C-alpha cells in the first residue's frame, strides 16, 4: 500500500510534466504553422506519438482550449516570478510583455479557430481577463512605485493596446509588433 501511494503522485507529476511539454509543443507549432498544423507534426515536436495527443485531447478543440489555458497560466505565473528575479520592476514588466506578446500571437490564431463556439470562447476570454489583468496591474504598479513609469496606467487598457498592436503580426513578416510595443513602452517613462 505504501509503495502504491509513493508511485501514484510520481505518475501524476510525470503526466503533468508530459502534458505541459505537449501543450508547449502545440503552442509553438501553432505559432510556426497555424492552428491547422497536422497533429503528427505536434506529436513529433513534443516527442510523443499521435495517440498520446488524442489520449489527452480527443478533439482539436480540446487541444486548442488546453493550449490557451496553459499559456494564460504561464503568463499569470510569470509576473510575480519576474518581479522577484529582475533587478527592476520595469525589467520585469518588459520581460512579461514579451511573454504576453508571444501568447497574443498564438491567441489570435486560436481565437479564429474557436469562433464557431462563441460561448466557449467567451468563457476563455473571461478567464484570460480574470487571470492576467491583475498580474499586469501588479507589474505596472510596481514600476510606477519605483518611478520607472508614469502612475495610473490602467492594466486592462494597456493590455488591450498591446493586443491591438499585435494584430496581424502572425501573418505579416514585415510588421514588427515588438518594436511597436517597445515604442508604446517608451511613452510610459516619466518625462
Automatic annotation (TrEMBL):
<dbReference type="InterPro" id="IPR001647">
    <property type="entry name" value="HTH_TetR"/>
</dbReference>
<dbReference type="InterPro" id="IPR009057">
    <property type="entry name" value="Homeodomain-like_sf"/>
</dbReference>
<dbReference type="InterPro" id="IPR036271">
    <property type="entry name" value="Tet_transcr_reg_TetR-rel_C_sf"/>
</dbReference>
<dbReference type="InterPro" id="IPR050109">
    <property type="entry name" value="HTH-type_TetR-like_transc_reg"/>
</dbReference>
<dbReference type="Pfam" id="PF00440">
    <property type="entry name" value="TetR_N"/>
</dbReference>
<dbReference type="GO" id="GO:0003700">
    <property type="term" value="F:DNA-binding transcription factor activity"/>
</dbReference>
<keyword id="KW-0238">DNA-binding</keyword>
<feature type="domain" description="HTH tetR-type">
    <location>
        <begin position="16"/>
        <end position="75"/>
    </location>
</feature>
<dbReference type="InterPro" id="IPR049445">
    <property type="entry name" value="TetR_SbtR-like_C"/>
</dbReference>
<keyword id="KW-0804">Transcription</keyword>
<dbReference type="Pfam" id="PF21597">
    <property type="entry name" value="TetR_C_43"/>
</dbReference>
<keyword id="KW-0805">Transcription regulation</keyword>
<feature type="DNA-binding region" description="H-T-H motif">
    <location>
        <begin position="38"/>
        <end position="57"/>
    </location>
</feature>
<protein>
    <submittedName>
        <fullName>TetR family transcriptional regulator</fullName>
    </submittedName>
</protein>
<dbReference type="GO" id="GO:0000976">
    <property type="term" value="F:transcription cis-regulatory region binding"/>
</dbReference>
